[in-house]
Write a structure and sequence with these properties.
mainly alpha; single chain; 8 helices; 76% helix
Amino acid sequence: MESYGYIAMFFAMAAENANIPIPSEVILGFAGFLISQGVFEFMPTFIIACLAGIFGSVISYFLGLYGGRPLLLKYGKYIFFNEKKFQLTERLFDSYGGIAVLVCRCLPGVRTFISFPAGVARYPFFKFIILTTVGTIPWTWLLVWAGSVLGSHWRDLIEYNHIFLIALIVLAAVITLVFFIKRRGK
C-alpha cells in the first residue's frame, strides 16, 4: 500500500470482502499507520475502504446468488446440503436476514463471509446493500482510526482483536436478545 497507495488498499479490501482471507485489521491498521506518517489522509482512506468493502461484498453476494446454490447442491450433498435446507435458509433470511447481515458485518471473521450466504438465500439485494453499508462504516472507521492513533504500533490491532471480538459478540448477543424479546412481545 505504501508503494501503490489507495489503489492497493482498495483491491486488498475488496478481496477481503470477496471471501479471500486477508484480515481487514492488517489492511486498515496499516492504512491508519500510513495516515500517521502523512502518506494517506483519513477521509479518503475511510471512504475508499468503505467503497472497497461494499464492492467486495457485492461480488461475494453474486457468487452466492448465481454460483453458490448449484455448486453446493452438486458437491455439498456430501456435507448435507440439499434443496430443503436451502429453502429453510431462505425462510430464515426472510425473517432474520437483515439483523444477520447487519450484526455479522460488525464481527471480525464473520463479516467477510455473510455476503455469500445472503446471496445463496436470495436476500433482497437493495436491503443487502443498505445493511452492508451501515455495517461496514463503523468497522472501517474504527480500524482506520485505531491504526492512525497507534501509529507504528498498528500491529497491536491484531493482538487485541480477540478482546474486541468478545466485546462485539456480547453486544450482538444483547441486541439479538432484545430483538427477540420485542418480537415475541408482539
